[in-house]
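hey
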């Protein structure tokens, strides 16, 4: 975990190449951990290195085949690599296999959006937002951001949202390395 922590710190300091080197060392030392692959895939995708991100996401999925964020990263990397049809097909297959999983709908929405199909993307992202577990800040925020991007492509104005501060309860578990842990999130206005 030390190398992965070092990689996260380096990435936060804006040194992604050094972060990737630390992650490569983490993978070399601890091959059984999918989190290094997840973080590397995320960093590589942010750098525009879609083919390498796809390799990392797929390596992580070999270790943790049901890890939703790795699935989303794999499909996002396919789309970013110019393989939009493959991304849409993979996302649709995942959604058909796991219709209850918000991440599968989010991945489909992102693939559809990248493939120039904002109306279908809006629908998929709306399903992702509805299916995201209550209190799951990042998945809901990603689904809402996807909806906003689809609306923008359709020429509509994004819906205003209220940001709230999320303070973890003592009973909440610490997330594994590489899992998101944001302190703010968006949510729909409460029913009054």
């Amino acid at each position: 975990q030390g190398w992965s922590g070092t990689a996260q710190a380096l990435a936060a300091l804006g040194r992604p190449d050094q972060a990737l080197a630390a992650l490569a060392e983490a993978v070399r030392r601890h091959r059984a951990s999918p989190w290094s692959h997840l973080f590397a895939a995320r960093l590589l995708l942010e750098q525009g290195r879609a083919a390498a991100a796809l390799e990392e996401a797929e390596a992580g999925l070999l270790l943790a085949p049901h890890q939703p964020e790795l699935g989303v990263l794999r499909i996002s990397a396919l789309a970013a690599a110019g393989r939009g049809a493959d991304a849409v097909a993979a996302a649709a297959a995942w959604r058909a296999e796991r219709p209850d999983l918000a991440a599968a709908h989010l991945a489909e929405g992102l693939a559809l959006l990248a493939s120039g199909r904002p109306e279908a993307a809006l629908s998929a992202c709306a399903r992702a937002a509805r299916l995201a577990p209550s209190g799951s800040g990042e998945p809901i925020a990603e689904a809402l951001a996807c909806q906003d991007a689809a609306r923008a492509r359709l020429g509509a104005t994004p819906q205003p949202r209220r940001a709230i501060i999320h303070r973890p309860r003592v009973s909440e578990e610490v997330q594994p390395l590489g899992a998101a842990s944001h302190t703010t999130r968006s949510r729909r206005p409460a029913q009054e």
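Residues 163-192 have pLDDT under 50 and may be disordered. Strands lie at 162-165, 184-187.
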